[in-house]
Amino acid sequence: MAKRADYDSPWKDLVEKYFQQFMEFFFPVFSLSDWRSQSVVVIVVVVEKGDK
Q1: For residue 5, what pLDDT is reported?
Q2: Measured between alpha carbons, how far is 34 from 31 in angstroms, rounded to an integer?
Q3: Which residues contact 33 (CB under 8 A, 6 or more apart)?
Q4: How far apart are the C-alpha atoms of 40 and 42, rounded to whole Å?
Q5: pLDDT in tens, 24-44
Q6: Concatenated DSSP letters for the chain?
Q7: What's the CA gap between 27 and 50, in Å, rounded?
Q8: How high does pLDDT run on average in the chain?
């Protein structure tokens, strides 16, 4: 079997290294978090699509 190209590892490495900056950029609500704490708060927003 041919070796598969590993295209996603560089992205995963960057997100892991810069996780706080990644979350604050793509999800600005996380800029309100205290990143020194060990707890994680997950906010879930459900949007219902109305009939058109």
Answers
A1: 82
A2: 8
A3: 41
A4: 6
A5: 898 887 777 777 776 666 666
A6: -PPPP--SHHHHHHHHHTHHHHHHHH-GGGGGS-TTSS---------PPPP-
A7: 24
A8: 78
pTM of this prediction? 0.51
Single-letter amino acid, residue 8:
D
Single-letter residue type at 38: Q
Q: Report d(CA 18, CA 26) in Å as an integer.
A: 12
Report d(CA 16, CA 39) in Å as an integer. Answer: 17
Joined together, the tokens standing for residue 14 give 């960057």
Residue labelled with tokens 């990644």: 22
